[in-house]
Amino acid sequence: xxxxxxxxxxxxxxxxxxxxxxxxxxxxxxxxxxxxxxxxxxxxxxxxxxxxxxxxxxxxxxxxxxxxxxxxxxxxxxxxxxxxxxxxxxxxxxxxxxxxxxxxxxxxxxxxxxxxxxxxxxxxxxxxxxxxxxxxxxxxxxxxxxxxxxxxxxxxxxxxxxxxxxxxxxxxxxxxxxxxxxxxxxxxxxxxxxxxxxxxxxxxxxxxxxxxxxxxxxxxxxxxxxxxxxxxxxxxxxxxxxxxxxxxxxxxxxxxxxxxxxxxxxxxxxxxxxxxxxxxxxxxxxxxxxxxxxxxxxxxxxxxxxxxxxxxxxxxxxxxxxxxxxxxxxxxxxxxxxxxxxxxxxxxxxxxxxxxxxxxxxxxxxxxxxxxxxxxxxxxxxxxxxxxxxxxxxxxxxxxxxxxxxxxxxxxxxxxxxxxxxxxxxxxxxxxxxxxxxxxxxxxxxxxxxxxxxxxxxxxxxxxxxxxxxxxxxxxxxxxxxxxxxxxxxxxxxxxxxxxxxxxxxxxxxxxxxxxxxxxxxxxxxxxxxxxxxxxxxxxxxxxxxxxxxxxxxxxxxxxxxxxxxxxxxxxxxxxxxxxxxxxxxxxxxxxxxxxxx
Length: 598
What we know:
This protein has 21 helices and 10 strands. The strands form 2 sheets. It has a 6-stranded mixed beta sheet with strand order 6-7-8-3-9-10, sandwiched between helices. A 4-stranded antiparallel beta sheet has the order 2-1-4-5, with helices on one face. Helix 3 (26-58) runs parallel beside helix 6 (143-166), helix 5 (121-134) crosses helix 11 (322-329) and helix 7 runs antiparallel to helix 9 (230-282). It starts with a helix and ends in a 6-residue tail after the last helix. The protein has helices at residues 2-5, 8-24, 26-58, 63-112, 121-134, 143-166, 170-216, 221-226, 230-282, 288-319, 322-329, 390-397, 420-424, 441-446, 452-464, 468-473, 495-509, 525-533, 535-538, 574-580, 583-592, and strands at 350-357, 367-374, 379-384, 405-410, 413-414, 427-430, 513-517, 543-547, 559-564, 567-572. It is elongated, with a radius of gyration of 35 Å. The model is unreliable at 1-12 (pLDDT under 50).
């Protein structure tokens, strides 16, 4: 019966989830198997042993035999319960270990996927579907595996019950099997319809989670309050909930049909069982003990068979997501080639060789035919209006994306040939949309575990980045937590302070190639002036790329690349480009006019 209902694909999927659990914690699998064996024995004892007690009470009433029967029954139930509790509790503890390992495994998987996938709705939907299988749609990790193993225990019980009922009338077994199969067929179709609804509502659930996170995300707090956005956002959230409600109403209607059909079948089965058994007792063909045993066996038969079928259907329900699980767990990172060439410790020459790029799913190119050479220790300013391609240029250089056409070379070798980690170790970047973590200031600068000795070096770096005044006001100094998420003594950095922390990161990493993407955007004029004045000290002896809308920063650089509509429109020194009276000169004087008298 199980073989008919449980397809080969389901067996393979069960084997896969079993493989992962065995890999992370073998004892968890052992405990749940032993638990099912114990749980299979106890129902059979509760069905068979009471028959002998009742028959003895209705017959000879021998005290010694009554004590023996009762002792065996109670002892089996008591010892079985203790053993079942022990195994279940141990399995739960081990399941937590497996769950923790799986969380780490999934965290690694997400952080290892190509950056472009994090912006891809199809990948995000794939992740949600994979999580639905792994966490049984909110019921907890391990439910699918435990249901699958539970089937094995239920089958043992089921076989024992069939053996008992068969001694009464084998045709009764066939009748009950037909009734349960009929119920399971209806339930299977209902659950299949619910699965289709579940798949359709996955994007809506993801959008629902977005709204919930949006309301509690403090980075949006100021916008929401100052813009008086509460009613507008609540209206959008209410509409989103109404869309989800439509799915839930369909689920409820389907489940109601299933439950009502089950109630009708249960009524028919109970009526048949009671009438037949009463008739057998009246005719003297069975004893009262037999009546009790068969009645318990029939009721247990129905519940056991339904439990088996429901488990099979549930596994098949979650198995529909298993394709997403396999795809998600087997995702490879095309960028992070750890077996690539080592990056030698010497001067670095960067070359974009006829590089073009368009984002996945887009028809238009963000960059087209970019060719430029950045010499070792050169300071290059990258300027241009919004949408000109500056950020995309940096994303390619930092290997967040690979070029659609052309090559990026480091010392004459394609970047894709290098060991990814080695290449990341020679880069540091300060982005305009930098992110700070709810860790200590020291950890936010070092971005790794550090010793007490290194803490003083980190503090010196913070001072050089312009954080000396802030440090003097913090009671815990460099050990102060950023934000108050987990520490009420933490502090909320201003935009300028946050950008200085991001600068300190780049300084502390001390790499030969530095990328500064609008590093002074949130700084006040004095702080910006100090950064400009110390710019050469910050990047002395390094190759530096400086992306900025403020063209005054370009004067600190050796060369300037002016981006326009995804191409390099002009290239040269500040003096050369001013003399050319082209786009750079126009943009420079447009900004300068606000700082001089007409």
